[in-house]
Amino acid sequence: MFSRLTRPQAVAVCALPVVALLATAVFAPLPFSVAQPGLTANVLGENKGTQVITISGAPVRDARGQLRMTTIEATSPDTRVSLPDVIDSWFRTDQAVMPRDSVYPSGNNVKEIEQHNEQQMKESQDAATQAALGYLGLDDKDVEVSLKLADVGGPSAGLLFSLGIIDKLDGDGTGGDLTGGRVIAGTGTIDAAGRVGAVGGVALKTQAAKRDGATVFLVPKAECADARAELPKGLRLIPVTTLKSTVSSLVALETGKGSVPGC
């Protein structure tokens, strides 16, 4: 025998599964990572007590300024990101929600991801060295370059590595240095031919650059719009496409001769 429920009771009973489903949806893990500005490192100096760029076989000059590569920090692949996390990050300028696959394209195994990032960094360093020595017309059989940057993986420091090598070996080609004594930051991949590629996360990287004293930020031209989106006040953007044009822009900025492109 069944008792009849009143209308309010029936509504309440029916609402329970709906509430449960909504609660499950709200707190269920989503395929995203939350990213924020990460560390920066001056490739012309030391990082964690170790010289980033070491060169033998050619005279090396002292640098007055800094060339800072930039990074983002993202939640680990096994961290649960829920809808409240996404909503919170949406309203913050110091965080961004990114598809987990774009941050960790090699999978969810932490060890495999670290190995993948280390391999990308090694390939990036090799390409950066080839691009820099090729730009200077030097033979890698005569000049040996060693690049070391602890706790950083991926290819996005390639451009800054190449610029650091050039600054240490040749500066601006006239006795001055590429930075003009400034703190210059940036990001971008590079291939052996000196072509600069996009990297992602540039809006967060500009914040990291400004936080660590940069006044100029080198950004792959294709990502100018992203870099402008949350650009910190007082940080100048210079779009870049090749190593050669980047050096030309920095020389023009230092000497005041020639045009310096903007986003």
Description:
A six-stranded mixed sheet has the order 6-1-5-8-11-12. The protein has a single domain, classed as Ribosomal Protein S5, domain 2 (2-Layer Sandwich), CATH 3.30.230. Helix 4 (110-136) runs parallel beside helix 5. The model is unreliable at 9-28 (pLDDT under 50). 37% of the residues are buried. The chain contains eight helices and twelve strands. The longest helix has 27 residues, at 110-136. A hairpin with a 5-residue loop joins strand 9 and strand 10. The protein is globular, with a radius of gyration of 24 Å. It is α/β, with parallel strands linked by helices and 263 residues long. The protein has helices at 7-27, 83-90, 100-103, 110-136, 158-169, 202-211, 224-229, 243-255, and strands spanning 32-42, 46-47, 50-51, 53-56, 66-74, 96-99, 144-147, 183-186, 189-190, 196-197, 216-220, 236-240. 38% of the residues lie in helices and 21% in strands.
Rg, rounded, reads 24 Å
Q: Which bin fits the share of residues in helices?
A: 25-40%
CATH topology: Ribosomal Protein S5, domain 2
Gross morphology: globular
Strands of the largest sheet, in order across it?
6-1-5-8-11-12
Q: What fraction of the residues are assigned to beta strands by DSSP?
A: 15-25%
Structural class by sheet pairing and helices: alpha/beta
What kind of sheet is the major sheet?
6 strands, mixed
CATH architecture descriptor name: 2-Layer Sandwich
From the N-terminal CA to the C-terminal CA, the straight-line distance is 76 Å
Could you give the order of the helices and strands?
HEEEEEHEHHEHEEEHEHEH
Low-pLDDT stretches: 9-28
CATH class categorisation: Alpha Beta
Number of strands: 12
- What is the average of the pLDDT values? 84
Taken together, the total number of domains comes to 1
The helix count comes to: 8
